[in-house]
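Standup, Tuesday
Yesterday: got the pipeline producing structure tokens again.
Today: sanity-check two examples.
Blockers: none.

Example 1:
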Amino acid sequence: MQRVESALRRELASLGEAARRAAFARLPRLASAMLTMEARGLGAPSVPHFFARDLVRISPTLSDDLLELYGRSEQVLANRFGFFGETEEFDAEIAWEPRRGRAWQVELHSFDYALDLALTFRISGDERYARHLRYLLAAWIASNPPGRAVGWTPLALARRIRNWVLAADLSRDSFQADTDFPRLFGSSLAQQVAYLAWQASWLEDRRARLVTSRALLLASRTFSSGRGVEVGQTAHALLAEAFDDGFESFPDHPQPLRQFELAAACCDHVLFGDADDGTNWAREQLQGALESLEGMLHPDGTVAMFGHEPLPSAEALTTLFALGAAELGVPQWKDLAGGEFGILPYMILGESGRCRFDELPHESWHADTRLHSESGICRLGDGNSSAMLICALPRNSPHDHRDLFSFELTVYGQRTVVDSGIYRPAVGADQEDLAAARGHNVLLVDGSLPKTDSGSGIQSRPVDESDKVQGLWLKLGRDVRPEELSPPESRGRPPGPRGSIEHQRGCFLVEGRFWVVLDRLAGSGVHRVESLIHFYPAFSLEVVGRMVVAKSGAVAVRVQPLSCGDANNPSVAKCRTEAPGWYSPAPGTRYPSQISVFEWDQAALPCVLGYVIGNKPDDLTNAQVCVASTGEILLDLDGMGYALGIL
């Protein structure tokens, strides 16, 4: 039923968007006149004080952040814009539809840089920044009539409205000194709000709905008379729907991005909402959203690289946790914020907010074990500086990364095993390399993955034996045939029979220092099985017998293969040309990752295959795995026996 409703909503959204585009393309004057009438119903804008007025001075400890902010603003003063590692410099006239990818254009029209200019003006008092801000806003208004091109798509429109309103608050003195600009700005802002409110109920993209909620919330405070009340009600309804729908309703975005957007929307409703209009509910939801976001982080506070879209930046995460710490009084979030009350949190909450933040006791945050996760990411943590994050959410669209059951690993504070990340949010040869199965730490049978469609839910069973073993088994909800993601690699051997194969993956932390990954394959026939591991670019790999040694500076880990059943001993290949690896920690950056591939040429199903990662070779040499008569998986490691359960 849920899938039918989702399909219906997509169809309605498509029809609604098509109708709007057709109206503005074929009858631009009539459509604009109707939009102008809707905008007039909002009344005259009056930007409230969203930012604090008890500001004294930016902390000297934030000098590096200030320099970075000033640097970004200077780039904008020169009409130089950079997104996803690509920079475009314009002359006096901005080309709002440059020959760049659509995602790049969305960033240009979203105006995050407007907030940078306004912050720099508010801090420095230098009129150049406010003057250039007014110029950019006026240039956009003149060049982008309603309802046309990228600038009026929901995500760009919502982000731009929010940025413009906040920038108007920070630059209010300069705006009001220009006698003509407030009218131009207010008229355009009203049209944009009316257009966004018009399409809010048809939005299928859940991220766009959350960002729309944030934009309409600020718009309702700016247009507080007339239809502004209705706009505010829509903003609250969109946020409430996100929690009613649950995570499964966000199929097109990676898990950390979903949770970040939920938390950010809640934070806006807490900070900028009307105290009598759902703020207490938003505070409760913010608490839960930030707690869930915690469960997706590595020990260094960064997010796992699962998914196909750019993830929140480190600055965005620390800002969110700093605001959450000051508002909700959670000491561990102060640690996640780096112990610093950043520029934006200070500008929003002022001296009183900084005092609340500073008065929180220092409590270190640790990436603990989270075996139960509605978000689709599970974590095994040693409570100190090592953790494994596992992706447990199936593919939902052809553009999704094939990273089901992939994982990332941090050992002693250093990222060791990585997922591919995203080079840039566009489909192309490079992007396909990252999204393909070989870009992830997964198991391949005859060159393929088990099918990962949205109709096959994920089953999980935690394994928790105090300090001895922590982990979980994961499997698809039903037996499926393997899905061909790439042609079987030809090496003079035919692929195995295409029968039904059931795949289970288990990830475990043993004795707080051994990381075990096992794959149980149930089926029949003899197959070629490969298990891929992508190491952080700084690692060099060396094959020593049947063991892989990965070294980077003072950190060295050993990986020993495990097998049970009729599988042959594995052969290990390093950086095979047919399995190129890339690691993209941020959009626009890409490094070749070092890949180890454990390969079983003639694996007779059923069998259990995998590997153990540790630091000392003597502890791993005699590692063995077997299946008891009860079906339970048993591990013999470092002279000790461990029961790993079974799903």
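Example 2:
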Amino acid sequence: TCDTKDRAQHIVWVAPHGAEGPVSSGR
């Protein structure tokens, strides 16, 4: 994901869920 918007969502997702969440989701 090289999208700036997706990047922000990725960080927001990483905070409470953990780095594995978005990575596994393909985000």
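Quick observation on example 2: Residues 1-27 form one domain. The mean pLDDT is 56.
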